[in-house]
Amino acid sequence: MSSRMFVALCLAPLLIVAAAFFVLPLARLVVVGASGPDGAAAYLAILTEPRYRESLVATVILAVATTVATLITATIVGLFVQRHDFPGRSVLVALLTFPLALPGVVVGFMIILLAGRQGLIGEVARALTGQRLVFAYAAGGLFLGYLYFSIPRVILTIMASVEKLDPQVEEAARALGAGAWAVHRDVILPALVPAFIASGAICFATAMGAFGTAFTLATRTDVLPMVIYTEFTLNANFAMAAALSVGLGIVTWAALAVSRSAAGTSVAAAG
Amino acid sequence: MTANGKGVSLRLENCAKTYPGGIQVLSPMTLEIARGETVVLLGPSGCGKTTTLRIIAGLIQPDHGGRVLFDGVDVTSVPIEKRNVGMVFQSYALFPNMTVAGNIGYGLKIRHVPKAERRKRVDAMMQLVGIDTLHDRRVDQLSGGQRQRVALARAVACQPRVLLLDEPLTALDASLRDRLRTDLNQLFRSLGITTIYVTHDQGEAMALGDRIVVMTKGTIAQVGTPDEIYFRPANRFVAEFIGAANILEGPLQSEVMLLPGGQLHIDGGRTGDTAVAMVRPEAIGIVSPDGASWTGRIQTKIFLGDRLRLTVAEAATSAIVVDASNRLVVQVGDRVGLTVPNGSVRLLTS
Amino acid sequence: MIAARLPVALQAAFTVLVTAFLIVPAVMSMLAGVTVQYSRGLSSGLTLEWVVEVWTLYSDTILRSVLIALATLGCTLTIGVPAAYGLQVTGGRIARVIEEIITLPLAIPGLAIALGMIITYGGVGSFRQSSLFILAGHVVFTMPFMIRSVMAVLGVIDLDTLDESAASLGASRWQRFIDVVVPNAIPGILAGSLTVVTLSLGEFNLTWMLHTPLTKTLPVGLADSYASMRLEIASAYTLIFFVLLVPLLAAMQFAARNRATRGRQ
Question: What is the pLDDT of residues C100-111, one digit of tens each?
Fold first, then answer.
């Protein structure tokens, strides 16, 4: 057997599976998206139809807010954990990254336990103010859920980048008279920018496409994945659901593609 | 050339290599290697020596028209795994998932040699290269020199038709390199396998090669025994690449070259405009300037222990290097006479 | 001195707060799963009643998920490991394009992929209604993790030279793959396997769309229990999921640490 044939044989099963269960379905999705009463114009509905546009805007705002909050949180925590050695550090890291493997549905349940009708935050609030605080089922709950989902991922990326920083650059800055704050502002944070771009894009794409969390919280905020789901199951509007999900796919893919050209990695946008 | 050598005789016919994009790394070359001979391919990086080795191995196909023959049989289209060649890589490429014995016995296992026989051969190989205590050691626990020996034992365990070595000592430090060079020389003599050895180190080439093939820019500059290459370089490239060489340029009048510092006798010289000649630093003697036909002025003096290295100005168009006795008493600025024994100057085609 | 310490103390406090945010609800759900009555707290007593009830209600979904995860692992191993090798030795533009395509499922929401699969294969009833439909989705979604994990390891070892050296000793392509490539890719295969199983067990976005009433998986059952069961049962079910997940996560951390210390040697 020639070596070229062996390599082809190695790749063939992958190509067949990818073609049958990914490329072909995606192609059909694009075709079906244009098969509704409006034809290819359905692809513009995400921008022109007020209901869809509002949902898109709300989803983008939520995703951007999640990204910004996650980056700030994860940077503070990641810097602290990576830069300090203390007893139980590895346990803390394990705890911080445990939610990494939780699917969106379970994350939704975690938020219900925190901020739902029988939630911890509500109990604490009642004890303090006499007023129950319940926000799991609104935009606040979704935001908290996305944070819960994204923080572990971004912490890992930030920690890896902090580990790679050259301590001598920092020492050089200090030798030049820079204080702790100036070192952070002028040396550490600029060096982490690639990590911010990469993990921020993943965070954004994940929040855009997250379905499980929104599904569990049955939220009153209509995020785009929920709209697609509703179109598909309740309204049986296959064409519109297809068109909208193609639009959503393009947004998440573009976010990751842009960041990858800046940072060189891509990770799951699952949720 | 050992007459009773093992392995095959080897012939490269018109072997060239052009990569897509039209870059020719090897011009068509023809080379004959006798059975049992050790041939060193020597040259600077990018000269085509590794490409030549990989063509012999079967890792690279020569351009159309090129042929590789083992004992007169065309093996050009035989893939490497069927050629029965032994190969030692620069990085050794030991299999990290196998023990030392597993590595050495791998080729025998592929050839379905029974286990008992395999163990005997592996043990013999380990003895041969002097690592018989390392049997079950993991590869990542070995030192550089030990890895090199394992790689060698692995390559020769199957009694290959040709042994191919690609810069096998480059990854080691200098003192170890010198020691292994001697060991390798003995090993090649005792194995008697046809061996092709690629290196950029002229010391290695001199020590190991029955013949040396000096290469530059994808072509053969000269093929010859070590002393032919050293004393009778075919051209300026070989002269300057092998050892230290003083290149002298000046008009010739019959057998005499006219130089700024006087005259130099050259055997077989013929009257012409300008000629280029080569003389080795150790071939030049320092004498009193009185009555000498060629003189110069000492510019620098470095004591190297075993000899005194002088640079002498005003003798030729540029300063020349002279290796003198370590007992010689001279001062910088002294005027000295220079002598060269008959036959030590070689005219070059430039 | 105090001025310099203060930010660090704040940082530490913030880290503790974030850790609490991530861990407290998980602990709460585990406790709720074994508490007699959640609203009355632990003082109502501990019980395994809810866990048993979850098992009677949902054991089929749990077993199906485990089977699908193992089948997904089987597929990603048999397809992904040779493919990773193939991509590594092919290199160049073709390999990059293929890699780009097969990693696309990570960048596109599962919802969209599931919709496409339903539109394409919805008419093939026997396939649509079997667990194989879900398996196909999981394989597409987890494949890039296996392939990348293996390729990462193959990229670190000098694969080309090892391959050439085995070839020079007479090994055929197939022998080289079995004797040299696979054994040296083990760390990557192991890490990839753990990731694949973990992801498959927890996969919801695709599976929710692809499942039928007869092919519910663990996360589908979870969503079902969150929506329709009392909090204690939902918690007990989550607890079972954690019990499945924690050994996998521990193994993953162990493997990663092992690799890190080996790399330092």
Answer: 888 888 888 888
